[in-house]
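Data availability excerpt. The first of two example chains:
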Amino acid sequence: MAEDVSELFGDALLDVARDVYGRVGPRARKAIDWVREAAEPPPGIELKAPDGATYTGFAVLDHSRVVVLLAVRQEAERTSVRPPVITPPPSPVYHRPLFDPDDGRWDRDGDPFRR
């Protein structure tokens, strides 16, 4: 019984929609075309948050200020901060030792700063 009632209700809604569309359809198409032309913003207008997020939806503006906003916020793309590339130093070049262990001035058993 409940299925019959819901089916009849659905059929009735479809009949009403077809009837209304048949009478209002051509005028509605003209109105939709007019709204489409009137609602087209000038090129270059964007709504962005200070943090770079953008919005998709509808906004009502008054003197360039948002009065009503029905929109979905889309986070700004985060740029990944990459660590700096550190190039290794060139291969070590042979340097002469600071002291010569065979030099007699170097005392292995005593104070190396004593002469």
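And the second chain:
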Amino acid sequence: MPTDIGVSQLDDRWDEDKFQDDGLRGKVRRNYIKIAKVGIMLGFIVVALVVLSVFLPRVGVSVEIIERGGLIGSITAKISNNNLDSLNNVVVQFGENGIPQNLGNIGPFASVFSSPNPSELEFDRIILTANDGDVRVVKYRNQ
């Protein structure tokens, strides 16, 4: 009668699935919950990168001059506030000697349109001041 039968069984490691009888030995088991969590986190990272790449170049106050020709030509200035803070006491002036137009307050991520007086249609620049002079933007007109 051999006496070393139990000794050879002790040489095996306990985590090698030698003692499982459920038939899963040799098959790869995947943790689908962990894979889903990693996928969701990667999705959030991709969305955050896309949002930042779109909004970071547009941060600040921008002034756009829109000119339309035709029978009745029109000139309009679009003032956009792409900041998290609101702009207070916004004043727009068409040209160096133009009449200042008070636009009031512009909230975050808001836009306001303003048109010059008929006597100021030949302006060379738009001067925007806000927050009691702390914010000043000058946009030149290309003629």
